Amino acid sequence: MEEAASVTGEDILDVTQESFQQAVLDESHQRPVVVDFWAAWCGPCQQLMPLLQQLAAQYAGKFRLAKVNSDEQQALAQQYGVRSLPTVMVFRHGKPVDQFMGVQPEPNIRAMIDRYLEKPSDKILEQAREQARTGDVDGALATLKAALEEDPDNGDLRIELARALAQSGDAEAAEAELNKLPMDQHEQDAVKELRARLVFAKTAAGIDPQAVAKEIQSGDPSPEALEKMAAYAMLSGRAEEALGLYLQLMKQHRAYNDGAGQKGLLAAFKVLGDDHPLVGQYRRQMASLLY
């Protein structure tokens, strides 16, 4: 084990229910906070604590170690579902993102902490996102492609590149970038949402919005018109219009394009998220058509 570097009272501290918000949740927006739930009677806790303290010293402020005496702070331990001791959780951006129970080898603990440390790529990602937000999509693409040349295995950079490519209108290139991701990242919510957006982008490609809108207003639109306008509405931020059109497509042309109405609704739900007020409403209407 490396010798300790330096540690301050800001890097290792005891935390109570009263101080948890500021010491852990608020601080986790600045750096990872490793919370050790322990007790004086717990032998493995006494074995693990010196290792965590030495790691905190070696990392020299890159993360905070917060110690919670679970006997004295039972409500806090219960709040975070602590069932056995020691339990160690990593907090980042206001919420627990990783954990382990019992005593773990030092390399395993280091690997867990390292996952949540700020990396040089984090600043590149923020730069690219700001470029895309301000309309400089070409600049964002250049930033991300250059960064990936230096760090080709960085999945976060690749996801952001796919997002920028989708924003530029190149849905096929965006999908190709997502397909390069390792399998475990395919299940991330950000990737699923982006894939759903790409479905809309492909469907709406080449649309003439005025002509399609006129056809829909005629009262007898083709299923293709309904599908294209629904996708275009989702891309344009008009979620309620999109959901209504997909529902209409499902009602009037259930089998069209292998169930495009239902598939469009499901893709829209992924993009909007379960907490969006429209999702529950339209999910119920979709279910009533199915059952």
Description:
With 291 residues, this protein is α/β, with parallel strands linked by helices. Helix content is 58%, strand content 10%. It has a 5-stranded mixed sheet with strand order 1-3-2-4-5, with helices on both faces. Strand 4 and strand 5 form a beta hairpin. The N and C termini lie far apart (62 Å). Residues 1-6 have low confidence and may be disordered.
* Number of strand elements: 5
Could you give the order of the helices and strands? EHEHEHEEHHHHHHHHHHH
Largest sheet geometry:
5 strands, mixed
Helix tally equals: 14
| Overall geometric form | elongated
β-strand amount: 5-15%
The neighbouring-strand order within the major sheet is 1-3-2-4-5
Structural class: alpha/beta
* Rg: 25 Å
Mean pLDDT figure: 92
Helix content: 55-70%
**Contiguous runs where pLDDT drops below 50 for at least 5 residues:** 1-6
Gap from first CA to last CA: 62 Å
Task: List the SSEs and their pairings.
Elements: E1 12-14, H1 20-26, E2 33-38, H2 43-59, E3 64-69, H3 74-79, E4 87-92, E5 95-101, H4 106-114, H5 120-133, H6 137-150, H7 155-168, H8 171-179, H9 189-204, H10 209-217, H11 223-235, H12 239-252, H13 260-272, H14 277-290
Parallel strand pairs: 1-3, 2-3
Antiparallel strand pairs: 2-4, 4-5
Descriptors:
five-stranded mixed β-sheet
What's the gist of this structure?
This protein is α/β, with parallel strands linked by helices and 291 residues long.
